[in-house]
Specification:
single chain, alpha+beta, Gyrase A, domain 2, Alpha-Beta Plaits, 6-stranded mixed beta sheet, 5-stranded antiparallel beta sheet, 30% helix
Length: 239
């Protein structure tokens, strides 16, 4: 279930990389995603024992912009909480990420994005803007017990290597490629990368994770692992 580098000509194309790794692709909300790589049961075991690399191309990314006071009021109304720069709030089937005091990045499924966008039309007169970044960014996930080890190898924790010094939402990189990192827990993280370079970012994450047993994991196994996570004691998010 390990991807190979292939030619430089096609390295940036994520669907090409996934197919070469053995992915069975299916369309979700109009976007192709890897359902499995041959065995959902084996891929679930990867997440339990080591760490899975998950295609989350199906997710939408929105940028909400408003003066700080209006943005805080919007957050309380739509997410039930506020988020500070560098913070991360999970609410209303979405991840709300604080970029600045006047800008929040929202990562969610396309249906939730459509609902949020529709709800924001009424706020247009209140100087609240929404921009859909889904055509520009792709989400790649890490899932499983060795997630933190892979993040450390990628330099996400900085020179100290201490996850406690890193904000849950921060700008970083995947090798030479710029990325936003969403650190949801010690077993779950997302990287938002340039959609045109997502294949290269995928391969870079895989290379960094090889010493820790990383393997490609499809949506079926990821969803099953998420259900298992809900049954075990919660882990503290990175702070």
């Amino acid at each position: 279930m390990s991807a190979t580098t292939g030619s430089q000509r096609t390295a940036a194309e994520l669907d090409v990389v996934l197919r070469r790794a053995g992915a069975i692709l299916s369309t979700r909300d109009g976007r192709p995603v890897a359902i499995n790589f041959g065995s959902a049961a084996a891929e679930l075991s990867v997440c339990v024992r080591t760490v899975g690399l998950v295609d989350h191309s199906e997710l939408s990314t929105l940028a909400l912009e408003a003066p700080p006071a209006q943005l805080s009021a919007l957050m309380r109304r739509m997410a039930g909480d506020t988020v500070s720069p560098g913070g991360l709030v999970t609410s209303a089937r979405a991840l709300w990420c604080g970029e600045t005091s006047s800008r929040v990045i929202v990562v969610c499924d396309p249906r939730t994005a459509e609902r949020l966008t529709g709800g924001l039309r009424a706020d247009a007169a209140r100087h609240i803007g929404v921009r859909d970044l889904s055509s520009e960014l792709t989400a790649i996930g890490l899932l499983g017990r060795n997630t933190a080890l892979v993040l450390g190898a990628l330099g996400v924790y900085g020179p100290s290597g201490d996850p406690r010094t890193v904000q849950p939402f921060s700008r970083g990189s995947v090798e030479r490629h710029a990325a936003w990192w969403l650190l949801q827990s010690d077993r779950r993280a997302l990287a938002l990368v340039d959609r045109d370079l997502a294949g290269e970012a995928w391969l870079a994450i895989e290379r960094a994770g090889r010493p820790y047993g990383i393997s490609c994991v499809g949506q079926e196994a990821a969803e099953r692992y998420t259900l298992m996570e809900r049954l075990r004691p919660a882990t503290l998010p990175f702070v």
